[in-house]
Amino acid sequence: MKRFVVYLLSIVFAISAGHYLGKACEDGSQFISWLSKSLDFGMDVQNINMNVFQIAFGFHISINYMQILFIILALVAAPAIIKSIK
Predict the structure, then answer these.
(1) Is the pTM of this model over 0.70?
(2) pLDDT in tens, 15-26
(3) 66 within 8 A of 15, measured Cβ to Cβ
(4) What DSSP string describes the chain?
(5) Among candidate residues 74, 62, 61, the one with its CA nearest the CA of residue 17
(6) 66 closest CA partner among 28, 2, 5
(7) Are 36 and 23 in contact (CB under 8 A)?
(8) Per residue in 7-58, pLDDT tens?
């Protein structure tokens, strides 16, 4: 259970830190601006309209290269974090 929590928290931290650092690299030099490029995919909102209620389904995911690098770093660093918690 502790192992799962450490992996989950490290990945969540990597995603959030990678998002903000990737956005910060947008206006940087040409050598670091590629870290802010995003891969976007998802499904547009689909509406189901009944007489009584209306349901809307849809999702959109955007991930940049900095987030991918941080997720890989988190997966590599998580075993060391687990060992230090013992």
Answers:
(1) yes
(2) 999 999 988 888
(3) no
(4) -HHHHHHHHHHHHHHHHHHHHHHHTTTS-TTTGGGG-EEEEEEEEEEEE-SS-EEEEEEEEEEEHHHHHHHHHHHHHHHHHHHHH-
(5) 74
(6) 28
(7) yes
(8) 999 999 999 999 999 888 888 777 888 888 888 999 999 999 988 999 999 9
